[in-house]
Design a protein that fits this description.
Strand order of the largest sheet: 2-3-1-4
Oligomer: single chain
Shape: globular
Radius of gyration: 14 Å
Helix content: 25-40%
Distance between the termini: 13 Å
Number of strands: 4
Order of helices and strands: EHHEEHHE
Strand content: 25-35%
Structural class: alpha+beta
């Protein structure tokens, strides 16, 4: 699957808003899992900073990711995010470079 993309999206909650930020991110997970082209969409919380949340994502194609970014639930999320986030997310859109063990060398 050469066209697959891996996305890492890092969110930083506003001061005192860690729980609210996490709750907001959780709202987009079920509808995203239902999207065509979503392989993995997995939320993580930083052990040292509960206000730092990271989504690790795999999409079948850049086109599938672009559809996701334009989905209604993402528009709603982006409208609400400034009330709980300390700034815009850092979003990395990457290609996998598998190496070594066929299972361990890729997400």
């Amino acid at each position: 699957a050469m066209s697959e993309v891996v996305v890492v999206a890092i969110f930083n909650a506003a001061d005192g808003k860690a729980a609210e930020a996490e709750a907001l991110v959780r709202t987009i997970i079920p509808p995203t899992h239902a999207e065509d082209g979503c392989i993995t969409f997995a939320l993580h919380r930083d052990l040292g900073d509960p206000g730092k949340l990271t989504l690790v994502e795999r999409w079948t194609s850049r086109e599938a990711l672009d559809r996701h970014l334009n989905a209604d639930h993402l528009q709603t999320f982006r409208a609400a995010a400034p009330t709980v986030m300390g700034g815009p997310p850092e979003i990395l859109v990457m290609e996998a470079l598998p190496e070594g063990d066929a299972v361990k060398g890729r997400l």
